[in-house]
Amino acid sequence: MATGCCGTKKQKLNNSSSVPSCNGTSVSQMVALPEMCFFCFDVLYCHLYNLAPPKTPSFSNDAYPLFVTWAIGKEKRLRGCIGTFNAMNLQSGLREYAITSAFKDSRFSPVTRDEFPKLSVSVSILRHFEDGDDYLDWEVGVHGIRIEFINEKGNKRTATYLPEVASEQGWDQLQTIDSLLRKGGYKAAISSDVRRTIKLTRYQSEKITVSYQDYMNHWNSQRC
């Protein structure tokens, strides 16, 4: 299921890869790579200009939850951010969400050809999912959080923020939780009792960001 990650315009899958180190312990291996961002740019360009889709990329096709975020301008204003908590093969998942986040984020109009040279793209690979003991069992700047709660009408709702959102907005834990409740559609007064009913899952992400200029430099280097 597609999920928006960032909330406002301003504002457990444990498939971690590891390799043995020289002392016998496991060392986490990075999954997110710049090539994934270059591929997202390729996919968007082909879609905007009605071209055949780009060829299958060479990066890993392992399955992970993922998000694709488009930003625009020097100030990197949010332009679209959608992803999934279902593990998807990276090659097909990034192909799908590069388009979905650019054209189907309900907070924004679809990305245009004129905007393409002003964009940057971030790929977030979500890992290390853990159940929180309560709504405060996570760390700002380290964890993304996903909450499940019952709204004032008795319906189950969910909402999420990626790890960078709280830090970028300058929020503490309580402000983040309350903002996330509002994002998820909770309209009544938020009390301590309401917060205590939240089921929280914390996670971490690997995030790679590439600008249009980075993309063009990469594309030109491939031609040489």
Spans of 5+ residues with little confidence (pLDDT < 50)?
7-27
SSE order? EEEHEEHEEEHHHEH
Please give the count of helices: 6
Helix content: 25-40%
Radius of gyration: 18 Å
Query: What gap, in angstroms, lies between the N and C termini?
Result: 41 Å
Structural class by sheet pairing and helices: alpha+beta
Residue-averaged pLDDT? 89
Strands ordered across the widest β-sheet: 1-5-4-6-9-7-8
Shape: elongated
Number of strands: 9
What is the percentage of strand-forming residues?
Answer: 25-35%
Main sheet properties: 7 strands, antiparallel
Which properties best describe this structure?
alpha+beta; 224 residues; two-stranded antiparallel ribbon
Can you give a write-up of this model?
The chain contains 6 helices and 9 strands. The chain is of the alpha+beta class. Strands 1-5-4-6-9-7-8 form a 7-stranded antiparallel beta sheet, with helices on both faces. A hairpin with a 5-residue loop joins strand 7 (144-150) and strand 8. The longest helix has 15 residues, at 34-48.
Quick recap:
The protein has 224 residues and is of the alpha+beta class. Helix content is 29%, strand content 32%.
Helix and strand arrangement:
Elements: E1 2-4, E2 18-20, E3 26-28, H1 34-48, E4 63-72, E5 77-89, H2 90-103, E6 119-131, E7 144-150, E8 156-161, H3 163-169, H4 173-183, H5 192-196, E9 199-211, H6 212-223
Antiparallel strand pairs: 1-5, 2-3, 4-5, 4-6, 6-9, 7-8, 7-9
Helix pairs in contact: 1-2
